[in-house]
Amino acid sequence: MDRINRELQNQQDRLRGQQSLPQPRGMSQGTGSRRSTTNSPEDEQKRIKVDQFYSKLRAVYGKAKYDSQFADAEDLKRSKRNWANEINKLTATQYNLGFKELKKLLQNGDPDYQWPDIGKVIGLCTRAERLKAAHKIFTPLPKPEKTDEQRQRGNEHLEALKRGLI
Known about the structure:
Helix content: 55-70%
Mean pLDDT: 78
Shape: rod-shaped
Structural class: mainly alpha
Low-confidence stretches: 17-34
Strand content: under 5%
């Protein structure tokens, strides 16, 4: 009976976080993660790319809107972990064109992009290379300047046409 009470007390203490569980070999202390504490240069670059994506998102949307999407630092970490693979698939061109397009959409007041949505922004980045306009905006050419000789020849041609019609 005494042994069972001690077991229950130990379990309750563990649940309350008052007593840490022994860590098996290869696990980092305090995180419960099975990942090694040493990162390869490739992993570090991927992490930096994800951090840059989120930093750019914060710069575009502003601190208030960005922070409102994540309850706390752990929520932000979970989001980064969930989207890391998709973010790391983006090329530099897709990344740059995607954020350029995002800024245009925000300037035009597109309601779909008023709040940070990681999935939508990644989708915008992956489509960015294909989002080129199907037409070009018309810009009129400047009027050509005519020389006196050209004007005189033009007037002579008009007079010849008028004589032919009369």
